[in-house]
Amino acid sequence: MFYENLNYINAESLIAEVKQELKSYFESGAISEILIPTFIDQSLRKLRVLALKPEEAVLHFTNYKSELPCDFVLLDRAMMYDHEIEFSAGTNSLEGYWHKSITCTNCNDCTPSEETYETITVPGTGFKIKMKQPRWIRVYHASKQYCTDGCENLSVSSSDVLQVFNNSKVSSTFETGCVYIRYYARPVDDNGIPMIPEILEVEEYVKSYLKFKFFEMLWHSVMDESVNQIVSKFQYYKQDYLSKLQAALSYMMTYSRQQIADNTVKQKQRFFKYHIK
Q: Is the pTM of this model over 0.70?
């Protein structure tokens, strides 16, 4: 289940709220903010429904290998193109056009033409890539876990094959080439901190999870009579984050009206080949 239309917010305001609530602990040095990015990442993974953002990129293969974007999570589509690279200091994007030729055979005054039915623009600097003649690439079945549900690259018939390794590297059966990919990414801010879906239930859950993790750290570090107070707050925030996790999960797993309608149509189409209505 993917949430392409979600808005994302920077986690700074949430972090500031938590730091203000636990101000005395931070000022005394009892807890540190160094693990905040890790804790936020853990909290989002516990939702089990990743909120992902669609992105595009062009991979350049050399010696049968290439590297995936650093924010890559799941592959949605991959097409291979014949290409030409032009280096230019003023170029700010990579552009490609997926086109088909249109010819007429039943009339006398007909001029062959081309129709562009997909335009690809990928951010980049320093060079421009002209891409033409798109063709499908098959993704090796062992890499299925790195593909979206229903990814067409898993079932196409092609001698060009990709294999994804650990969300970071990819190998191919062709030595060199230019591959356009559409993929899902986990958005992060300039400091590498995961961005938060702009959903109130999720925001409250993330703040509660941060407080729970900080008191867990305190629980492991205190050695004097204050341990009882720390344990009490630790148990409170653990229960609080668990309840807010359930609220966030309930929201994220709820289907919209459009998703319900799409699923209904999809179920009906499954039986068309059996002539069942």
A: no
Alpha-carbon dihedral sign for residues 247, 253, 259, 264? negative
Backbone torsions φ then ψ of 8, nearest 5 degrees = -120, 145
Conformational region of residue 209, where left means phi above 0, alpha means psi within -120 to 50, and beta covers everything else: alpha
Q: Which amino acid would we find at residue 169? A: K
Q: Residue 91: phi, psi to the nearest 5?
A: -80, 130
The residues with which 135 forms a beta bridge, in sequence order, are 80
- Whether the CA torsion 24, 25, 30, 36 is positive or negative: it is negative
Determine the residue type at 77. R
- Name every residue whose Cβ is closer than 8 Å to that of residue 148 and which is 6 or more positions away in sequence: 2, 74, 75, 76, 184
Q: Which among 91, 170, 100, 104 is positioned nearest to 135, based on CA atoms?
A: 100
pLDDT digits (tens, 9 = 90+) for 193-237: 888 888 888 899 999 999 888 888 877 776 554 666 677 777 777
The Cα 227–Cα 192 span in angstroms is 34
Distance CA 182, CA 17 (A): 36
pLDDT in tens, 146-187: 888 888 899 888 889 999 987 678 999 988 888 889 898 877
* Nearest residue to 188 (alpha-carbon basis) of 176, 196, 178: 196
Q: Is the four-CA dihedral 49, 55, 61, 66 of positive or negative sign?
A: negative
